[in-house]
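User: Show me a protein chain along with its predicted structure.
Assistant: Here is one chain, sequence first, then C-alpha cells.
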Amino acid sequence: MILRRVTKHVKDQNWFAVGIDFFIVVVGVFVGLQVQNWSERQGDRSAEQRYLIELRQDLEMALNEIDETIANAELRRAAGAYVFDGAPPPNAVSTFKKMQRNFLGEDAAGAAPEDYLPLIFSVARIVDKHGDTYAELVATGNIGVFEDRSIARELSTYYSRYDEIQTGDEMNWTQMTKTREILQNRGISMTSPISPTNFITRVRDDDEIEAALQNVAGLAGWQVKRLSNLRDETEGTLARIESYSD
C-alpha cells in the first residue's frame, strides 16, 4: 500500500507527499527494529535468569558433593594415622555409616570403624561433575547471554579448575582398586571384620600392603587439601552468582 502511494506521488511529482511517505517508512522501520531489539533483550534477560537459577543449583550440588568426598578422605586419612602413627581410631562418622549400609548390611549396624580398616582403605570417593548448565551454555553458544561479561570468564575459570581437580582425584580411585586387590590377594576381605591388632601386625609384616596403605593415606590428605580449596572456590562462585542474581 505504501509502495502504491509513493509511486502515485512520484508520478504526480508531489514531492512533499513523497517526503512524508519516506519519513513514515523510516520511522516504521526504526520502531520495528526497536521493538525487535527490546523483545530480544527481554528474551535474553529471561534466559539469563533461568541459567542463573540452574547454575546456583549446580553449585549447591557441587558443595554437597565436595563435603561428602572430603569426609570420605578424612576417614581414610584418620585410618592411616591410626595404623601408622598410633593415633586414636577413626570416628564412626556418617561416611562410615554409609559404608556399613552399602557394604556390610544391617548385621554390622553397630560396627566400630577400627574393626573394618580394610573397608575404609578400599573404598574411595571422588567428586562428580555438576556443570551441566555451564556445559549447555558453552555448547549452545549462550554463554554470551549474561549482561556482565565477567560472569562468563569467572565460570570458565571455575569449571576448568573443577575439571583439573576431578582428573587428579581419579588417582585416589586407581589407588583404591590396587589396594583392594593387594588385600584380597592376601586373604583380607574388605567386608569381613578383622581385629585392629591383627590387621596392623599384617601390615607391618608385609611391605606391599604397608606401601599401598601409606599411598592411600597420603593421597587422602592430598585430596582433603585440594578439595578444601575447591570448596572455597565453589562458595566464592556461588556467592558471585547469587549477588548477580539479586
